[in-house]
Automatic annotation (TrEMBL):
Residues 233-327 form the DHHA1 domain. The lineage of its organism: Bacteria, Pseudomonadati, Bacteroidota, Flavobacteriia, Flavobacteriales. This is Exopolyphosphatase. The gene is fjo19. Pfam families: DHH (PF01368), DHHA1 (PF02272). One of its GO terms (molecular function) is nucleic acid binding. Residues 17-170 form the DDH domain.
Length: 333
């Protein structure tokens, strides 16, 4: 057992009131890791609360325990009250407090107790009692599985509900096991989760086979806008008006950016989405093209080398223009 795992076990064992947090717009990895830890700590007899900055999307409502979380945007006073009586704060699947949104981050910064980071994104904050930050893992769920396996090697905590949550995060954040961060240890972890009762077929169907007709209307719009800057760079965009006209919502555009990357020869794909007066951008890349650093430099964002996001505070036309002027700094034309 590593020194950090020993320290984590002691910290958990000595804490009675524990708070779990994750990033805004929680995805499968954020919700999966948070709910997995929620189940584990509850089974240990801890007083546990999981607060997400906003709602977990409907596509993840199959996750065990999803009804137990509290969305901060609907209940801001709950976090303020709970922080006054919290022994231990977990920060899962985000590298900096700002990823929880301005209002929630402001409250979290007031917490003077022990904080634990478990995350796989680059350039994390350093103000933690214990930090498990490792970008070589394909997901926070895989990293959490490894950390808990070292801290509690008897695996008595690995129930079917926990296995379901962890498998979901690994599946979604690895691109269904296609990204280059997937390693042999990933599949060994997944084998253990399947043995523990994770229903992999049901999980896949719940995530990928529940599309609404509105998603395909929006997809047609996105494909009609697809633009080739070169044989290796493509991008597309969706305006707020087009979202409304299609009847789709934000979740319906999930995964669209990956479609550009599936084109032969393409190394970078980007998708621009108008959202509440700003532009959200998703970046995907292959090989050594680092869209994480690119997003940090030009679009107030970040993430992973081959998958990142950003925000542009202006028009979608301005965001696209910035992309066209700068993307070839990181990918050959």
């Amino acid at each position: 057992m590593t020194t950090e795992a020993i320290a984590l076990r002691r910290l958990i064992d000595s804490s009675s009131s524990i708070l779990i947090t994750t990033h805004i717009n929680p995805d499968g990895d954020a919700a999966g890791s948070s709910l997995a830890l929620y189940h584990i700590l509850c089974k240990m007899g801890k007083n546990v609360l999981f607060i997400s900055p906003n709602e977990i999307p409907p596509s993840l409502h199959f996750l065990p325990g999803v009804d137990e979380y509290v969305p901060f945007n609907q209940n801001p006073d709950t976090l303020a009250e709970r922080l006054q009586n919290t022994d231990l704060l977990f920060c899962l699947d985000y590298n900096t407090l700002s990823r929880t949104g301005d209002a929630m981050a402001e409250l979290l910064r007031t917490f003077a107790g022990k904080k634990v980071l478990i995350d796989h994104h680059q350039q994390p904050d350093t103000d933690y009692a214990i930090s498990f930050s490792d970008t070589s893992y394909c997901s926070t769920c895989e990293l959490l599985f490894q950390v808990l396996s070292e801290a509690y090697p008897d695996l008595k905590w690995l129930t079917p509900d926990v296995a379901t949550c962890l498998y979901t995060g690994i599946l979604t954040d690895s691109g269904s096991f296609r990204f280059n961060t997937v390693q042999p240890r990933t599949h060994r972890a997944v084998a253990t989760l399947l043995e523990a009762g994770a229903p992999h077929t049901a999980i896949h169907e719940a995530i990928f086979d529940q599309n609404r007709p509105e998603r395909f209307r929006l997809m047609a719009v996105m494909l009609s806008h697809m633009t080739y800057l070169s044989h290796s760079v493509v991008y597309s965009w969706i305006t707020e008006k087009e979202f409304l006209q299609s009847g789709a919502d934000k979740e319906d555009s999930e995964g669209f950016v990956n479609m550009g990357l599936s084109i032969r020869g393409v190394k970078v794909s980007a998708l621009f989405r108008e959202e509440e007066g700003k532009v959200r951008i998703s970046f995907r890349s292959k090989g050594e093209v680092d869209v994480n650093q690119y997003a940090r430099t030009y679009f107030n964002g970040g993430g992973h080398r081959n998958a990142a996001g950003g925000t542009w505070y202006g028009t979608i036309q301005e965001a696209v223009k910035r992309f066209e002027e700068t993307i070839f700094e990181v990918v050959p034309s």
